[in-house]
Amino acid sequence: MRILTLLLLLTVVSCQQNTPRDKDISILKDKADSISTLSQNVLLQNVAGAIKKGGTEYAVDFCQVEAIPITDSLSKEVKMYIQRITDKNRNPKNNLKTKNDRTIFDEFKRKSELFDTLLIEEKQYVYYKRINLAMPTCLKCHGNPQTDIENKTLQKINLLYPNDKAVGYKLNDFRGLWKIEIPK
User: pLDDT tens, 110-127?
Assistant: First the structure.
């Protein structure tokens, strides 16, 4: 597994002589990848349950209240900070907040083959992993508002998220990144 280092971010890379070895980096990436996969699965299972219980309109309500607490709970459990970030956010808490986030996001956007990367910062490691819109069910809330999203679901999205940018996706589009901060 190759380790991608973005030269644009040299200012955040630690200059310590005690840098981790390739084996340690590989272990960290594997652990972060497992955590992002677990997070994705838990979130998708909960959303699927909400859709089953009350349809996509109900799932929008569910996500507004529960999506962030679900990732926060997982963060506490694994003692790492887990979040989803994107340039087309629905929830403002998922917006790109830092210069590093923007730079990394733009790199993933340009390079469809880029799957994940690990940054070595002074006080932590930061793992980023691609999120593509991979399931047709996701289009019911994130697809084309005219053809994919039911009118009552779109009304609920507009009510709860008046500045929503998270629509207009097609299957397999790049949707965002998992970001996992691992303390040193």
Answer: 999 999 999 999 999 999
Neighbour count for residue 130 (Cβ, 10 Å): 19
Give the single-character DSSP code of 115.
-
Longest Cα–Cα distance of the chain, Å, equals: 58
The token pair at 100 is: 């590093």
Q: Which residue has the tokens 């790492």?
A: 80
SS3 content of the chain, % helix, strand, coil (to 5): 50, 20, 30
CA 70 remoteness from chain centre: 13
Per-residue pLDDT band for 22 (boundaries 50, 70, 90) equals: confident
C-alpha 74 chain-centroid distance: 14
CA nearest 172: which of 147, 135, 143, 117?
135
**Sheet (strand 81-85) strand order:** 81-85, 174-183, 124-132, 116-120
Q: Dig out the tokens for 146 from the structure.
A: 């005219």
Give φ, ψ of 11 to 5 degrees. -65, -25
Residue for token pair 């981790």? 20
Q: Is the pLDDT of residue 4 over 60?
A: no
Tell me how far the alpha carbon of residue 36 is from its chain's centroid. 8
Query: pTM score > 0.90 for this model?
Result: no
Strands 174-183 and 116-120: unpaired
CA distances from 88 to 141, 166, 171, 182 (A): 13, 5, 16, 25
